[in-house]
Amino acid sequence: MAEPAPLLTPDEPLTGEAASRADATALTFRARRALFKRLADVVCLPSSRVNAFERSMVGDLLVEMLRETDTPDRARVARRIAGLTEAPASLVRLLLRDEVAVAGPLLEEGHGLSDSDLIECCRTAGPEHRRLIAARRHVAETVCEALVEAGEPEVIETLLRNPGARLSTFALEAVMAQSRHHDPYVAGLLRRPELRPAQAYVMFWWADPDARALILTRFAVGREAIQEVSADVFALAAAEGWQDPLVRKALQFIERRQRNRAALSKSAYESLEAAVAAAEQGLTREIASEIAYLSGLKPTTGAKILTDLGGEPLAILCKATGLPKWAIHALWRGLRRPETDSETGALTRPLERTLITYDRMAVDRAQTVLRYWNWSLSSALTPALVQAIRTGDEQEIDPFSAPQRAAMLALASDFGRK
User: Fold this and answer.
1) Smaller CB count within 10 Å for the chain: N or C?
2) For the whole model, what pTM was predicted?
3) Phi and psi at residue 347, to the nearest 5°
4) Has residue 288 got a pLDDT over 50?
5) Is 38 helix (H, G, I), strand (E, B) or coil?
């Protein structure tokens, strides 16, 4: 048996049979590249030169060849067809699932990709593929939903920065829920034109101070229009004895008066101011409930406001109910929170932000925020919903109920879920 030919050193020239094999391989690779180019040229021909059946057949041939070739060949074909609006579907699916070096040109520049192509890529490819899809010039709502499903911060942040992306309500609320544990999402969501006041008011509870200020500046709107069109309904509801719970609940959100006169007639305190003054000596559960009732709030909403560490909700409560600024200081002392810095003597940052919020808010706008919080956090708070919040069972939440979704998000930590 003949001995095997010795291996060549890097500097040793190829001779004889080895040189012939190398030449044949080079010719084969040149032929392969030439064939790939010719087939891609056919795929790229206009409809006047090649019909849909021929294009599809050539695409199938390319798919079979590309499955057996190396990355540079696949990347060249991907770049070649990236500008097509009618690329063969089988070819597109193969290349989109490929590594980023191959799929990248299609994901970044591909004009002929359908939403279903992109959704399939979102669900079968890797994070970098999804990031490139999130950065495309136009991203449809259904594609955004598929991108959000994976919950990848870099992908979602890219999507939120993209003005060409259209976020559906489902996608927005999915990112909102995730923003409770990922602060950068809050700032990104606040830049989105799709965000609505109801969503911003819920996100307020876990937003940082700068984001809270932006929410109150941008989304705290008045209720003049809705009050004007429903003015005569109050008399109709009163004539019916306020028997319709749906009307009663809606009018509680619309009406101009914030304080609860009926609660005052049953209270041990002669006014809301008196209850706040009593709270200055120590805010007990009983006094907190009285303040909530006298302010036209349910105890759940009052507790959420009074226990918020940021303090801005206190400013909203006081401004909406017509309480003077001293009430903020009284409640602050009742909550046993420091008013001044022990070293500098200046107001603590939380108290300073609270007072600034009070000064900046108009009464009607503060009432809008306060009414929404009360409506969303307590109007739908049934025992079944409380149990769903405790267990995190989102299947029990009505997908069309804004108050139920708001309560699930805002009260999750209060009921023991993180």
Assistant:
1) N
2) 0.72
3) -60, 145
4) yes
5) helix
Whole-angstrom distance, CA of residue 47 vs CA of residue 28: 31
DSSP letter string, 103-139: HHHHHHH-SS--HHHHHHHHHHS-HHHHHHHHTSS-B
Give the total residue count for the chain: 418
- Using CA atoms, how far residue 392 sits from 151, 171, 185, in Å, is 18, 19, 21
In this predicted structure, which of 74-78, 128-132, 245-249, 398-402 has the lowest mean pLDDT?
398-402
Query: How many Å apart are CA 402 and CA 190, to the nearest integer?
Result: 19
Cα 374 to Cα 299: distance, rounded to the nearest angstrom: 9
3-state class (DSSP) for residue 381: coil
Query: What is the distance between the alpha carbons of residues 299 and 305, in angstroms, rounded to a whole number?
Result: 10
Written as one string, the DSSP assignment of 261-324 is HHHHHH-SSSSHHHHHHHHTT---HHHHHHHHHHTT--HHHHHHHHT-SS-HHHHHHHHHTT--
Q: Give the closest residue to 361 by CA, choosing from 402, 401, 405, 328.
A: 328
Do residues 296 and 367 lie in contact, with contact meaning Cβ atoms separated by under 8 Å? no
For residues 80-97, one letter each, b for 16 or more C-beta atoms within 10 angstroms of the residue's C-beta and e for the rest, the string is bbbebeebbeebbebbbe
Task: Please count the other Cβ atoms lying within 10 Å of the Cβ belonging to residue 300.
Answer: 18
